[in-house]
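Hey, can you fold this one?
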Amino acid sequence: MFKIEKATTNEAQLIAEIGRQSFLESHGHSASEDDIKNFVDKTYQEKAIAEEFKNENVQYYIISYEDKIAGFSKIEINALSPWIDEAAVTKLDRLYLLEAFHGKKLGVALFNFIIETSKQHNQKGIWLAVWVENLKAIKFYTKNEFKIVGNYDFKLSDTRSNPNHIMFKAY
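Sure. Predicted structure:
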């Protein structure tokens, strides 16, 4: 019923569209309308996403359900973190699922796929930043053996930052 495939630069526009929509769905209320609009306009554009594919450690994966694109993830292999004393760790930079596909266990499937992909790259763990108000995500990651190891202010604009937890799961 679902399929996960590694994305290429050919999907940069699709990833940008999904990123924009899912960010608005999950974080659209976290700042002013202008701050959110400026952030998504800068972050979720085809050119910006395509540029990320130049980094060989960055990998995007697209999940589809019944032949419809449901979401994507972005990881970075060997992504150093000031909160973690290990070089061989993966950063789970994004795991976005469109609201229309919530409740179908697709997020869990994509998450498990990312963990296995990270392990296949001989990583020692995986880390991420999660908005402190995203209690559903924090509960999910805690249930999956992530520990809060630090805090980070996610900069949305020159005048707005949202507090995030840095969470880490060792393998």
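Residues 149 and 167 are 6 Å apart (CA to CA). Let me know if you want another pass with a different chain boundary.
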